[in-house]
């Protein structure tokens, strides 16, 4: 898919639709594996191309009469964290804090919470 095709909504401001597009773009770039016991619910491969989600983690949750997939939020956290560690050399605590906020905002943009 071309980069331009991933941008369905356009805004320079904080925008839930634009963030949701970004989360979908992240999802297309990784493989998700649910086959293992993963400490702290989720993690990533050394190259960052695979996101591992604990096999016991439910894949969906009920929210206001709808099923919400959880993987997009977990992978947002893991991809952001890994990129900040590898590309910018941030300390884990700093990368984790930024990733937590990206994950939280992705949840809010999806209308959950």
Topology:
Elements: H1 3-6, H2 16-28, E1 31-33, E2 42-44, E3 50-53, E4 60-63, E5 66-69, H3 71-88, H4 92-109
Parallel strand pairs: 1-3
Antiparallel strand pairs: 2-3, 4-5
Give the SSE string: HHEEEEEHH
The beta-strand count equals 5
- As a percent range, the share of helical residues equals 40-55%
Major β-sheet strand ordering: 1-3-2
State the distance separating the first and last CA atoms: 31 Å
Computed structural class: alpha+beta
Strand content: 15-25%
Mean residue pLDDT:
95
Count the helices. How many? 4
The largest β sheet comes out as:
3 strands, mixed
Low-pLDDT segments: none
> Which overall shape is indicated by the principal axes computed on the Cα atoms?
globular
Radius of gyration: 14 Å
Detailed description of the structure:
By secondary structure, this protein is α+β, with helices and mostly antiparallel strands. The chain has 4 helices and 5 strands; from the N terminus they run ααβββββαα. It has a 3-stranded mixed β-sheet with strand order 1-3-2, covered by helices on one side. A two-stranded antiparallel ribbon has the order 4-5. The longest helix is centred in the C-terminal third of the chain and has 18 residues.
């Amino acid at each position: 898919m071309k980069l331009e095709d991933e941008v369905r909504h356009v805004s320079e401001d904080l925008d839930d639709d634009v963030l949701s597009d970004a989360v979908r773009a992240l999802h297309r770039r990784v493989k998700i594996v649910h086959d293992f016991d993963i400490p702290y619910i989720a993690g990533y491969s050394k190259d960052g191309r695979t996101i591992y989600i604990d096999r016991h983690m439910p894949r969906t949750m009920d929210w206001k009469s709808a099923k919400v997939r959880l993987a997009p939020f977990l992978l947002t956290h893991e991809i952001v964290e890994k990129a900040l560690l590898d590309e910018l050399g941030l300390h884990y605590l700093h990368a984790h804090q930024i990733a937590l906020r990206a994950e939280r905002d992705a949840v809010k943009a999806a209308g959950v919470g």
